[in-house]
Amino acid sequence: MIVFNLICSECEYQFEGWFDNTASFNSQKKNKAINCPNCESTNIKKTLVAPNIGKKSNSKKIKNKKTMASNINKIKKIVEENFDYVGDKFTEEAKKIKYGETKDRPIYGEATIEQTKELLDEDISVTPLPFQSNKKTN
User: Fold this and answer.
1) Does residue 54 belong to any structural domain of this protein?
2) How many C-beta atoms lie closer than 10 Å to residue 89's C-beta?
């Protein structure tokens, strides 16, 4: 089983969904079998999920470090392939998306602690990423 963090595009309600695999999620989404528990909309999308890194009692610390690094690299690849990099314009772009001034899409970039607090005060969800981007904006 795999757990995805989901969000309703209509009411922005966030919830979890459990699926056999990614193909199962995609199939159910295509068939409109996933409904928002808050408003019943079928306009649902996945949000970024942190890796589930559990320590096994028989594992060595070195193995866990390699696993963690591997999972972070996987997250980085997913983010860089599927999200728009907006650099230090992250706060501005997140607000534009929230208030319908620009196209809704997944973004990532940089924000200061103060900017992050400002976004949270405006009920804009943010998730810190466990890596720094190689991308630079001009």
Assistant:
1) no
2) 15
- For the stretch 39-62, pLDDT in tens is 999 999 988 665 555 655 555 555
Q: Any idea which residue has 């969000």 for tokens?
A: 7
Overall domain count for the chain? 2
pTM over 0.85: no
SS3 content of the chain, % helix, strand, coil (to 5): 35, 15, 50
Residue 134 resides in a domain:
no
Tokens representing 106?
């997944």
Helix, strand, or coil here: 108? strand
| Residues 45, 9 contacting (CB under 8 angstroms) | yes
Instruction: Give the Cα separation of 109 and 93 in Å (integer).
Output: 10
Q: What is the DSSP letter of 135?
A: -
Q: Give the three-state DSSP class for 7.
A: strand
Q: Say if residue 138's pLDDT is above 50.
A: no
Range of the structural domain that residue 117 is part of: 83-121
